[in-house]
Amino acid sequence: MIFILSLPINNFVAFLKGNNDSYQLYEVVNYDSSCNLTVANNDNKKFLAYGLKQQGKLEEALSLYEDLYYHGNRDIAVVNNLANIYFLYDETIRAESLYHFA
């Protein structure tokens, strides 16, 4: 029983020490850190794309959002953020089609 309860605590300790990908993603989003990250799953990829978009690194964010979208990840956050970036680049037809999809 004690071992089962310690699993989340161990993950949290690793997070606080900055020893895992989640902490590096947290830094990117909250501290404008320039870590070079490789993301292993779609959830982390969405989080990283959002962080890059917040930092104004639209080309990198666009690349990640397009990769997610064209590989079948059509959740509302991906579609909406992709449409927002297209709108900023004056690609209104693409943006509007995604807004209607969302």
Notes on the protein architecture:
The protein has 102 residues and is mainly α. The chain is built from six helices and no strands.
Q: Could you give a short account of the major beta sheet?
A: none
Number of strands: 0
The class by helix and strand makeup works out as mainly alpha
**Proportion of strand residues:** under 5%
Percent of residues in helices:
over 70%
Low-confidence stretches: 1-7
The CATH class assignment is Mainly Alpha
- Our count of domains comes out at 1
CATH architecture: Alpha Horseshoe
DSSP summary: helix tally: 6
H/E element sequence: HHHHHH
Q: How far is the N terminus from the C terminus?
A: 44 Å
What is the fold-level CATH name, i.e. the topology? Serine Threonine Protein Phosphatase 5, Tetratricopeptide repeat
Q: Note the overall shape.
A: elongated
Mean pLDDT: 79
Q: What is the CA-based Rg, rounded? A: 16 Å
InterPro entries: TPR-like_helical_dom_sf
Summarize the structure.
The protein has 102 residues and is mostly helical. It has helices at residues 2-17, 21-31, 42-55, 58-70, 76-88, 92-101. It has one domain (2-101): Serine Threonine Protein Phosphatase 5, Tetratricopeptide repeat.
Please supply descriptive tags for the structure shown above:
disordered N terminus; 0% strand; 102 residues; mainly alpha; Serine Threonine Protein Phosphatase 5, Tetratricopeptide repeat; 75% helix
